[in-house]
């Protein structure tokens, strides 16, 4: 008899679906909505990236290619890693695929249903969603505002059991913007080594850092033993629509992930991969200029949010989000999100969508026009003041 | 302790990997190889498709979009289905994703590990690979040359058990080129209805038909109850590098597949989806012209293969392959493939890669230059004759 599989019971609805449905309804009714909920820069990619995509189409890069990625992109990733982290992985350690697929494939290749994966709370909603649909137990490590939203390695250690198969570490972090120190990262690497557990280092925001450096636990084993770097082009290069990312990891695991990707996807379109090469060759001054634009927007957003009664917002060191504390309003994060959407036309994500420790916070992506930030914060201030 | 999951044990190596490794070694050594093993036309897509991709990039269709696909493409798929099959699905019945992902997602959403899926033998290697890695039992229905490689619905019926959750039917078929009759298709639909089982109709080659019509079992329930149509742009529109396909099915199942795609992939790049709209709007005379080119190549390939002692090749009615019987050579299909690669520089796929009933046959994709077909067949003839 037909019916859905058990697996479908673990498929989560998009946790911010309620908000999104309301946003769409308001927009359909002709109302203007200031949208800060989507984790995407309101800035286009560099023209050279778009041109590289078009040139690859013209050059005939339009047929099946190796499921692990085209050789020139894999080599470019090796070179980029060497420049950024000081070690050069072998090409056989690199697989080209969307960043979300890396999360899914790593979990499926190293964790059985019923076993455990550890990550931070609040944390990226896709970790939660993937673990849920695979029947893997998600063990959470709280990250707290008083520790600048950095994961404490000793708290991580205390949660490891004989069922732990994978640790996910995220720096800079989504949704909080927290950035791990070098000492903390090395300690996480040490813990993974001592406990003999795989370590997925989600470095998707490694280019989104302000006045501090990016540290990766991968420097310890150079991704040869247990560390898998996840990165991609959506955040650092504003290329969300390309769906292009990569994994760097132990060659035997990368080979398994490649077999899986070949089976369910064949390959990433080659003309998209050429865009990735172009992005990795972006001149440093262009990257620096973009980061300084982002920083101005971050600072403006933090300043304006802190002018609103009941809200306190610390300055995040990385990523593309602010994660203000809204407990002073007396509202839950979901109530807050509903109120500012209805009364101020501002769309934000309730912190509770990222785990129970996100309660009392909301997430806003600040890579928007300055005017939009100013207007939205003014509207929120009025809405929240009127309420009291 | 770290180690791979149980799931990885079911990941199959690419069944034609031995051949491909040898092909690459020969090419690296500077030897010319006539490559007929890849299931891809040696013909570019229409210029309007490439232009549509570039125009979408210029128009800024470069951000996240709905995981089920952009509305204009989903509507175009509804319109195309109405023109081709006589019924118009609702937009909520359409999900845009790569064709291989449709196979993976349908199996995962309706079949539990240990339950059964039925498909033909020989059959598409991805059905075998997906069932294997998911721990799903693949139940095979032999398709035979004496029945023009059409699946016999009564043989299908006899293999249904109380564990059967999904039937996959493929017409035109890969690797044989067999095309089901209308009566057979309606009988398959009836069996699925009577037994209350999902039916995945793989129609990826529906545009690759010669002097006969395409019949879909979906006309019975209009994809509202149990039938899922799988289609895409790689074969009919020579757009393999775009990785663009779609599913049409019951809205509740499509919603589950969309949640899964959102979790592990987010969405298909929007500029790629615009290329799909352009492809669906290809003028009928252009499509007809291309099919007549394909037919000439098919006929040439069949003629030349039949001139080789030990080979008999029937004329396939659809798809882009010939599947000659090579038992007259006294070789297994793997031995044959190795011999013609080594002695004639011709790459073909052993029929045994598609299941045990493929033994005694090899697959060649004939959408190549005429000269390449003639030269390769001449070289095979010499190599096989010299041997005896």
From TrEMBL, chains A, B:
<keyword id="KW-0670">Pyruvate</keyword>
<dbReference type="InterPro" id="IPR050596">
    <property type="entry name" value="AspAT/PAT-like"/>
</dbReference>
<comment type="similarity">
    <text>Belongs to the class-I pyridoxal-phosphate-dependent aminotransferase family.</text>
</comment>
<dbReference type="Pfam" id="PF00155">
    <property type="entry name" value="Aminotran_1_2"/>
</dbReference>
<dbReference type="GO" id="GO:0008483">
    <property type="term" value="F:transaminase activity"/>
</dbReference>
<protein>
    <recommendedName>
        <fullName>Aminotransferase</fullName>
        <ecNumber>2.6.1.-</ecNumber>
    </recommendedName>
</protein>
<keyword id="KW-0663">Pyridoxal phosphate</keyword>
<feature type="domain" description="Aminotransferase class I/classII large">
    <location>
        <begin position="35"/>
        <end position="379"/>
    </location>
</feature>
<dbReference type="GO" id="GO:0006520">
    <property type="term" value="P:amino acid metabolic process"/>
</dbReference>
<dbReference type="InterPro" id="IPR015424">
    <property type="entry name" value="PyrdxlP-dep_Trfase"/>
</dbReference>
<dbReference type="InterPro" id="IPR015422">
    <property type="entry name" value="PyrdxlP-dep_Trfase_small"/>
</dbReference>
<dbReference type="InterPro" id="IPR004838">
    <property type="entry name" value="NHTrfase_class1_PyrdxlP-BS"/>
</dbReference>
<dbReference type="InterPro" id="IPR004839">
    <property type="entry name" value="Aminotransferase_I/II_large"/>
</dbReference>
<dbReference type="InterPro" id="IPR015421">
    <property type="entry name" value="PyrdxlP-dep_Trfase_major"/>
</dbReference>
<dbReference type="GO" id="GO:0030170">
    <property type="term" value="F:pyridoxal phosphate binding"/>
</dbReference>
<keyword id="KW-0808">Transferase</keyword>
<keyword id="KW-0032">Aminotransferase</keyword>
């Amino acid at each position: 008899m037909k019916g859905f599989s058990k697996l479908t019971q673990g498929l989560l609805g998009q946790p911010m679906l309620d908000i999104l449905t309301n946003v769409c309804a308001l927009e359909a009714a002709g109302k203007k909505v200031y949208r800060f909920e989507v984790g995407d820069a309101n800035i286009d990619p560099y023209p050279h990236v778009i041109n590289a995509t078009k040139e690859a189409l013209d050059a005939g890069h339009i047929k099946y290619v190796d499921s692990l990625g085209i050789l020139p992109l894999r080599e470019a990733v090796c070179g980029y890693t060497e420049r950024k982290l000081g070690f050069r992985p072998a090409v056989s350690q690199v697989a080209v695929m969307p960043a979300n697929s890396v999360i899914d494939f790593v979990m499926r290749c190293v964790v059985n249903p019923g076993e455990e994966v550890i990550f931070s709370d609040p944390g990226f909603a896709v970790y939660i969603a993937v673990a849920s649909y695979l029947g893997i137990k998600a063990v959470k490590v709280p990250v707290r505002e008083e520790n600048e939203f950095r994961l404490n390695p000793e708290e991580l250690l205390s949660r490891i059991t004989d069922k732990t198969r994978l640790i996910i570490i995220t720096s800079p972090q989504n949704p909080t913007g927290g950035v791990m120190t070098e000492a903390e990262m090395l300690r996480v690497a040490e813990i993974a080594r001592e406990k003999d557990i795989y370590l997925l280092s989600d470095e998707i925001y490694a280019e989104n850092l302000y006045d501090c450096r990016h540290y990766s636990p991968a420097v310890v084993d150079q991704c040869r033993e247990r560390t898998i770097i996840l990165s991609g082009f959506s955040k650092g290069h504003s290329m969300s629509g390309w769906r292009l990312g990569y994994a760097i990891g132990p060659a035997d695991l990368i080979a398994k992930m490649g077999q899986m990707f070949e089976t369910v996807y064949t390959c990433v379109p080659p003309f998209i991969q050429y865009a990735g090469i172009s992005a990795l060759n972006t001149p440093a001054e262009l990257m620096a200029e973009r980061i300084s634009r982002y920083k101005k927007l971050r600072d403006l957003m933090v300043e304006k949010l802190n002018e609103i009664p009941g809200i306190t917002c610390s300055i995040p060191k990385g990523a593309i989000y602010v994660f203000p504390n809204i407990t002073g309003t007396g509202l839950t994060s979901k109530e807050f999100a509903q109120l500012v959407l209805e009364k101020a036309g501002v769309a934000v994500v309730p912190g509770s969508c990222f785990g129970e420790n996100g309660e009392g916070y909301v997430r806003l992506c600040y890579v928007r026009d300055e005017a939009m930030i100013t207007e939205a914060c003014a509207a929120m201030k009025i809405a929240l003041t009127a309420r009291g």
